[in-house]
Design goal:
Length: 278
């Protein structure tokens, strides 16, 4: 949506400038029109990002957020769509009709790229996803502030006690109907592109909050930046595999993790590991 507005304004501005310069009375418009359009497009993109910086300036990471900010979430969605458009990402989806239209849920997905949350956000807008994110993301310029305002929860992956506090906070967010929770159960971005062992403790969130688990996979996000640098389009595939009802989420979290891991691995074409991934 934001990119469409930028394109329209750049086109109108270029046409207006050409009329004002009298370029259409000669062949000069053949080079002036595209040059003006490109300049105006670049200027408007830069202005858009300047607006984002100014929007985020008043946001304090030290001030607790107890409710999802609709305004900040709308801004986040607009700029996520702009970023993916600039990076020439084409997204193909299957199974989104299974996404719960009412009530909260825990969404789990494999993790290949820093851009994975953007894609999941765009296709689950009504669900108000709040991501569990590594603490290091709190240092990301601008992004950290929008994450903070949309109830994203930092997790200490190296401290089980601190991680449990994050899990309990996510349970509270679900029970209070503030947002749905999204998490990458691998805990880290896969360096090999293959599914990595799960940290099954995240499934306690769904068990304690008594919400369903939405199982998704992503393919193709790893080379987005590399392809964009070479002006190549990237095709990304988002598959919603199934929704596990809350009533079926009983027993050890390892059993849930094993089931979800197998479903993802089958979809991704990954071999099942011989070792325990509890």
């Amino acid at each position: 949506m934001l990119m469409n507005g930028i394109l329209v304004l750049a086109a109108l501005g270029a046409l207006g400038a050409c009329f004002g310069l009298g370029s259409f009375s000669s062949l000069a418009f053949l080079w002036q029109l595209p040059l003006l359009f490109a300049g105006l497009w670049l200027g408007l993109v830069l202005l858009a990002f300047l607006f984002l910086v100014l929007w985020c300036l008043p946001i304090s990471l030290d001030q607790p957020v107890e409710a999802d900010s609709k305004a900040d979430r709308r801004v986040l969605y607009l700029y996520e769509e702009l970023a993916l458009t600039l990076l020439q990402v084409k997204i193909h989806t299957t199974g989104l009709e299974k996404l719960p239209q009412e009530g909260r849920f825990l969404l789990v997905c494999n993790h290949l790229s820093l851009l994975d949350p953007l894609i999941l956000h765009i296709y689950t807008k009504k669900s108000q996803l709040a991501f569990i994110s590594k603490r290091e993301n709190d240092q990301l310029f601008i992004v950290n502030k929008l994450m903070h305002k949309t109830l994203c929860q930092p997790i200490n992956r190296e401290n089980d006690r601190e991680a449990l506090k994050t899990i309990l906070k996510c349970v509270d967010i679900l029970e209070q109907d503030k947002a749905s929770i999204a998490v990458f159960p691998e805990g880290y971005t896969s360096r090999t592109g293959h599914l990595q062992p799960f940290r099954n403790g995240v499934f306690k969130i769904a068990q304690r909050a008594k919400v369903p688990i939405v199982v998704c996979t992503l393919r193709g996000t790893a080379p987005i930046f590399r392809n964009a640098a070479h002006l190549r389009r990237t095709h990304v595939y988002l598959d919603l595999l199934e929704v596990l009802p809350a009533s079926q989420l009983k027993g050890p979290t390892k059993d849930i993790g094993d089931y979800v891991f197998a479903a993802m691995a089958q979809n991704l074409g990954d071999p099942m590991p011989d070792t325990d991934h509890s």
